[in-house]
Amino acid sequence: MPPILEARDVTKRYRLGAGDVDAVRGVSLAVEPGEFAAFMGPSGSGKSTLLHLLGGLDRPTSGDVVLDGALISRLSDDAATKLRREKTGFVFQFFNLVPLLSVWENVALPFTIAGEDARRAEHAAAIRAALASVDLAGKERNRPDQLSAGEQQRVALARALVRRPALLLADEPTGNLDYATGTEILDRLWRSCHEGGQTVVLVTHDAKAAAYADRVYVLRDGSLRDEIRLGRREDHGAAPLIARLADLGL
Length: 250
Fold this sequence. Notes:
alpha/beta; 9 helices; 10 strands; globular
């Protein structure tokens, strides 16, 4: 099967003062359907910028991004938005929930934004299923400020999953969570991949989080420095990955 996601010699350049800064430098990679991939690197390595390029939230300065066979980097804004809405779900470090909306309404947003009635039977069933999958059944009427940080991130995850997108992109989803709660989120992401066949791309600086992935791409200074294949496994111990990173001097 062809890759579901590709970067082809992708560069992202920003103007900074009188000069230019390359946040991403000529990165090429491919993510297979149903794969759990992680982008790992220190702060400023370009991993979040690369994720935004791959998800169609930003456009590369040069090179191409291919999402499920479509050159999303060359589509019009409207066409790119439509493709992103149909194919992807996003989870961010800071949850990005709407404070005035209930849990149900936040999870329903992908339908609402698409101009669809979230109260339709099939959409309502999808919302209930997404909430149940993250153990939030019974909290549909709560607002975000009535939830813990872990519960808020689970709402964000349910929102990303509700349309069953082919590709789930997660940018430091455990960055604001304690260890136990972060592990719950990582376990849910892994299950969506292993049991649900969903492709997951995770950005993290934490080797313990990256160890959930089948394959880890290591970035530094905007460049792809290594590709570490861990394989699909139920034991997510980080020791093999940490040892490999040590060999690389990271």
